[in-house]
Specification:
single chain; alpha/beta; Rossmann fold; 6-stranded parallel sheet; 14 helices
């Protein structure tokens, strides 16, 4: 039996949310070949997943954005002659790739205009956590799913990435230290904490003898440079220096990880690293840390209900975050 699971959403978090699906499907069909069609941007998230036989990446925002490339991808998929195609992304593009895949059975989420090609056609439940939404879809397809409390997001990495993380720890004298990883970014300004607060918190932690290390991609270089300029005790900076596999390996070595609602926060969850998650305008129910030790810090409910969404994160103080970190470290302040 040959199975294709489709989700071409390019966001890190969204790609991690459906990683439990591969384990569950493989356990339901232990002799099946299970392939994944995912966005090129997040290919590394699934690259070393032991429950995926083949990763097919699709660069829908770059070289494969045009109609001709979509048709080429459909032809490539059809060559495999899948027995079952499960689409977990109701966008027009993903729905089209699944609908015209040539699969003997095509099912899952779909756009309104292509739903007639799906049997069964499922509606995405946006009232629950994104992981639970995918688990619910599998149940509706008749696939046995464990209790949600036993399900975890998964991301594996290679030996080279592990060695890179170990080298970074060695070069920065982080071995045998309590390290707090910090990701300062988010997909919008309203998800980000102020540089002034990050610098103050980093100094508080390092003043206690802990070590802080800043992660992030090229988009976060500016805010981290500002943090470093403001900080009295300079943190370790890895911003813009790691790929996703190296990032996962480095986060795994942290004692606690601090982030807003971001992809790296979900990578930390996939590594079972305790997370302090700062939430402003986005839903904790849908996007919060899933089945790992965590503390969520939000502004008070009256502020959430009445304040400008872009300003919500300003109401979270360094002292609150400091307390949250120590609650997960289980160390006295």
């Amino acid at each position: 039996m040959k199975i294709l699971i489709v989700n071409i959403m390019p966001a890190i978090g969204e790609s991690l949310f459906f990683t439990p699906v591969f384990r569950i499907v493989k356990q339901a069909f232990p002799h099946a070949k299970v392939d994944a069609l995912i966005a090129e941007d997040v290919r590394q998230i699934c690259l070393y997943n032991p429950y995926i036989d083949k990763v097919i990446s699709f660069d829908k925002r770059g070289r494969q954005a045009g109609l001709i490339e979509h048709l080429k991808m459909i032809r490539k998929i059809r060559e495999t002659r899948y027995d079952l195609v499960i689409n977990l992304n109701p966008s027009e593009r993903a729905s089209a790739l699944a609908a015209f895949s040539g699969g003997k059975k095509v099912c899952g989420f779909a756009s309104k205009f292509l739903k007639r090609f799906f049997n069964p056609y499922l509606i995405k439940d946006r009232s629950v956590h994104c992981v639970d939404c995918y688990l619910k879809a599998l149940r509706e397809l008749g696939i046995s799913v464990p209790n949600s409390g036993d399900v975890k997001m998964e991301m594996e990495y290679d030996q080279q990435s592990k060695l890179t993380a170990e080298r970074i720890w060695l070069e920065n004298n982080l071995d045998d230290q309590t390290v707090v990883g910090i990701h300062p970014g988010g997909s919008s300004a309203g998800k980000c904490w102020k540089a002034e607060y990050l610098a103050e918190l980093s100094d508080m932690l390092q003043g206690d003898g802990l070590k802080t290390i800043f992660f992030g991609g090229p988009a976060e270089i500016g805010i981290v440079e500002k943090v470093v300029a403001l900080a009295k005790i300079k943190p370790v900076v890895l911003t813009g220096k790691l790929n996703l596999l190296e990032l996962a390996a480095a986060i795994k070595k942290c004692s606690v990880f601090l982030s807003g609602d971001s992809g790296p926060m979900h990578i930390a969850v996939s590594q079972q690293v305790p997370v302090v998650a700062l939430f402003g305008p986005t839903s904790v129910v849908r996007y919060g840390p899933y089945n790992c030790p965590h503390v969520v810090i939000q502004p008070a409910q009256n502020i959430l209900a009445n304040e400008d969404k872009e300003k919500l994160m300003e109401y979270i103080t360094p002292e609150q975050v400091y307390q949250g970190i120590y609650s997960l470290l289980k160390k006295p302040i």
